[in-house]
Amino acid sequence: MAEIIPIGADHAGFELKERLVAELKTLGFTPNDVGTHSTASTDYPDYAHVVADQVSRGQARRGVLLCGTGLGMAYAANRHHGVRAAVAWEPEIARLARLHNDANILVLPARFVTEPEGIEILKTWLATPFEGGRHERRVEKIEVENI
Question: Is 135 tagged catalytic?
């Protein structure tokens, strides 16, 4: 069975989200598009919380979010237990977010990346495993109850 990837965006990320949904299908994943479904103005937390909740509860291993800068989505998503949402504006950032931080939600700044860049960032993030080792200890320290 194909891995389900929840994906959500506000109005600023809508067009790139539509393209990434198609790309996820091409790559053999099953996207769960939680919206938005138009360019009409919306509030990013409404979508961030849906995707982050699915990841936090273990209903999905990882997810994708998009908004204008990526920052609002990351702020909202990272409030969920076990979520490590990383804003990536180039493939190397996405690779390191997975490799060293085990980022389980990719956040794209839709107003600052082109469609081809967004696709490349997504592909890099999906293909990069978590390195573990010394990074595992650091990731464990992210959760507040571990401090």
Answer: no
Phi then psi dihedrals of residue 135, to 5 deg: -70, -30
Tokens of 128: 């990069």
Q: Which of 37, 49, 67, 80 is catalytic?
A: 67
Q: Annotated catalytic residue: which of 11, 37, 49, 100?
A: 100
Active-site residue, 80 included = no
Cut 0.85: pTM above it = yes
Alpha helix segments (H runs only) across the chain: 14-26, 44-56, 71-77, 91-101, 115-127, 134-140
- Domains of the chain with CATH codes: 4-146 (3.40.1400.10)
Report the pLDDT averaged over residues 96-121.
98
And the tokens for 92? 């190397």
Residues 6+ apart with CB under 8 A from 112: 69, 70, 89
Quick one: CA dihedral 17, 69, 74, 104, positive or negative? positive
* pLDDT for residue 11 is more than 70: yes
